[in-house]
């Protein structure tokens, strides 16, 4: 959200992040984003409030008469609270100007669910200065696999035990990425040969994209939102929950690397080139500005006199987490 606000302000469309807690500002990543809070801000009839999909339910009554857009970072979460009421609101609210999502899968899902509502997909950008290939022409990586435990549930433990029982991991290090800063994660991924993506459902699949950007070979679950990332030329897809399929896929990768050293590195570099090309800051900037300017030019579904509503003076972003 911070990134989107920065891009909109740079394009001349005033925007701010609206937090609940006065004085709060996310500082775990560098930013100079415009931030305010709900107590210090009054949303006028010409403003537009952008809210996450999980906030639609608690804000249903407050949204009456307020121009708004729903930023849906995980379409599967749309109906997680008061599903019927939220679905009715998204389908019929005269104050809803549209939905924004971050993957092709979610775009298709939302258009299927709400055929009369404008849906815009914006691409995530993978920060090229952080998530990138190692410096230098050569890319010597240790035989290391990594994964993110907080997304893995019990699947990672089961798959690793399967692999160890067959001796597949002999000579390989397995590194859980936990409790690290963004910079530390990127550094670890640049020293990772194989990244195991464990997940259920995703709005996009950011960890897999970041691993690819760093040149790791990615194997695992795309979570549907990340399906657009998993090209079989440089990655391997495993159905969520398929422990046997996951273990067999990893074993195949280990065997390929043993038979032809550099097999993973070659495909990892192809994955990095794909991410750099398709998920660049330039693409994100274009998508974000186009999405919001398009949505905010639309009329509400039902205006009292049928006239186009006035242009917004500000876009206020409500945070995904209650702060």
Strand order of the largest sheet: 2-1-12-3-4-5-6
Count of helical segments? 10
Report how far apart the termini are.
14 Å
Which overall shape is indicated by the principal axes computed on the Cα atoms?
elongated
The count of strands amounts to 12
Percent helix, as a range, is 25-40%
Write the H/E string, N to C. HEEEEHEHEEHHEHEHEEHHHE
Structural class: alpha/beta
Protein name: Glycosyl transferase family 1
Organism: Geodermatophilus normandii
GO molecular function: transferase activity
Keywords: Transferase
Structure description:
By secondary structure, the chain is of the alpha/beta class. It folds into 2 domains: 162 residues, Rossmann fold (3-Layer(aba) Sandwich), CATH 3.40.50.2000; 135 residues, 3-Layer(aba) Sandwich (Rossmann fold). The protein is 34% helix and 15% strand. The chain has a 7-stranded parallel sheet with strand order 2-1-12-3-4-5-6, sandwiched between helices. It has a 5-stranded parallel sheet with strand order 8-7-9-10-11, with helices on both faces. Helix 5 packs across helix 8 and helix 7 packs across helix 9. The protein is elongated. About 5% of the residues have low confidence. This is Glycosyl transferase family 1. One of its GO terms (molecular function) is transferase activity. It comes from Geodermatophilus normandii.
Write the topology of this structure:
Blueprint: H1 2-10, E1 15-19, E2 35-37, E3 48-52, E4 68-72, H2 83-92, E5 96-101, H3 104-113, E6 119-121, E7 144-147, H4 149-152, H5 155-165, E8 173-176, H6 182-190, E9 194-197, H7 206-213, E10 217-220, E11 235-237, H8 243-259, H9 263-278, H10 281-296, E12 315-317
Parallel strand pairs: 1-2, 1-12, 3-4, 3-12, 4-5, 5-6, 7-8, 7-9, 9-10, 10-11
Keywords: Transferase
Pfam families: Glyco_trans_1_4
Organism: Geodermatophilus normandii
């Amino acid at each position: 959200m911070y990134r989107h606000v920065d891009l909109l302000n740079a394009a001349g469309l005033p925007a701010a992040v609206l937090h609940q807690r006065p004085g709060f500002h996310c500082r775990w990543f560098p930013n100079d984003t415009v931030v305010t809070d709900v107590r210090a801000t009054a949303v006028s009839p010409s403003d537009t409030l952008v809210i996450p999909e999980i906030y639609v339910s608690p804000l249903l009554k407050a949204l009456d008469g307020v121009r708004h857009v729903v930023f849906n970072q995980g379409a599967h979460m749309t109906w997680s609270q008061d599903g019927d009421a939220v679905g009715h609101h998204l389908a019929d609210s005269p104050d809803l100007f549209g939905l924004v999502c971050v993957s092709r899968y979610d775009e298709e899902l939302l258009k299927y669910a709400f055929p009369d509502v404008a849906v815009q997909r914006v691409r995530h950008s993978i920060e090229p200065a952080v998530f990138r290939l190692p410096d230098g022409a050569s890319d010597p990586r240790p035989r290391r696999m990594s994964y993110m435990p907080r997304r893995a549930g019990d699947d990672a433990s089961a798959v690793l035990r399967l692999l160890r029982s067959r001796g597949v991991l002999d000579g390989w290090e397995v590194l859980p990425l936990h409790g690290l800063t963004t910079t530390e994660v990127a550094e670890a991924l640049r020293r990772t040969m194989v990244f195991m993506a464990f997940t259920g459902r995703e709005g996009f699949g950011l960890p897999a994209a970041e691993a690819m950007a760093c040149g790791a070979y990615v194997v695992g679950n795309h979570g549907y939102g990340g399906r657009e990332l998993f090209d079989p030329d440089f990655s391997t897809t495993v159905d969520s929950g398929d422990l046997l399929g996951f273990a067999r896929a990893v074993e195949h990768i280990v065997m390929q690397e043993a038979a032809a050293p550099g097999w993973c590195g070659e495909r990892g570099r192809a994955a990095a080139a794909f991410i750099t090309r398709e998920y660049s800051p330039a693409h994100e900037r274009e998508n974000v500005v186009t999405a919001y300017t398009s949505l905010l030019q639309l009329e509400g579904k039902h205006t009292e006199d049928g006239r186009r509503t006035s242009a917004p003076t500000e876009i206020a972003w409500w945070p995904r987490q209650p702060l």
